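Subject: sequence -> structure tokens, single chain

Hey, anyone have a minute? Need the predicted structure for the following. Not urgent.
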Amino acid sequence: MNLEYSCSFASQVVIEAGKLLIGMTGLSSTHYKEDGSLITTADIKSEEFIQNQLLTTYKETCFVSEENPILPDKRYWWICDPLDGTTNYINELPTWGISLALMEDCEPVMGIIHLPVINQTVSAIKGKGTIINGGLVKTRAVKEIEFSDVITYCSWRSNDFSTEIRGNIKGNVRAFGSSAFHFTQFALGHTVGGWEFGAKLWDVAAGILIVKEMGGVITLLNGNDPLTSICLEKSLFERYFKCIMATNQEVYKLLCDDL
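Reply:
Had a minute. Here:
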């Protein structure tokens, strides 16, 4: 598979899905799923569009998502969150996005995150770096965390990020309610790092590759690579990451010391 061409094609698909979502803002119906999370008709329409476009062009792949958490049976498979930050989207906040990764077995080889409202796209190809607006980017050069620096966290359970942990962190902690938004802000250099609590693979697969290809660090709290814990014999809907930390090399050590 030509990853450069596939990334360009998939990026256009995701951008078009973003336009679809913007057009449905305020018009989609909403209900709660069994796990208590929200879903809208916009989620479903976005997923259907992305899935149809990708599988029509890449018939040798399969498609996995939050609403379609099948076990992949192909060497190459797409994993997607077609609307990451549903609550923000429902309330017409701009902090939501689309996250898409191409996996080769258990490893992402391409990742794309698109924020439709602010029209920002970040992509990465394994071994080729992370790209924003056509240019390669690296992690922000930060050796010390200042009080003015922003660190993000994302969790749909408010007790994950305890007051004790928050109190130990120098810097301003902010939660924007979307892993896609958080990863993009880190790639842009607007934040120095962050935590993702209780994330599923479709939330973070693209972000993991984006951070790695920038030269950043992305680990579980025990220091292990999140991808080493993926088990494709277990339902991807059941599998989640208790906590993932993303930052640069220098800040990683500082955050570990603080915790």
